[in-house]
Amino acid sequence: MKRMTVLIMDDAVLVRKLIADLLSELEYIGPILEAGDANSAVELFSKHKPEIVILDIKVPGSGGLKNGIDVLKAVKKSYSTHVIMLTNHANHKYLSECKQAGADFFFDKSTEFDKVPDAVLEIVHRTTSLH
Fold this sequence. Notes:
Strand order of the largest sheet: 2-1-3-4-5
Oligomer: single chain
Helix content: 40-55%
Number of strands: 5
Distance between the termini: 10 Å
Order of helices and strands: EHEHEHEHEHH
């Protein structure tokens, strides 16, 4: 089976590295791309078309890309991909907005970080069972 490309967008390098380390141990995952801001994330997304995107909400951005929700909307509008939102701002307003924009998962970074690898595996299994 083909390996799935993952894009991680978080302005904290340590968080990106931690997620990348967790995911690099999973079967069928790789390469793993990293972006520290909204604009870089969309550029990488456009170039590589990753199957899975992990986004933080509060990240630097400019132009029409002010945060992770803008990236979510851009990604979902242009390409069929799976999106996991991972944020410290896990309130009902953001949850609702992200789900409405097409997020597949929404996790609180402070209490649900460990759920990300399972969500990625669920996406892998869902995707591979369709083929």
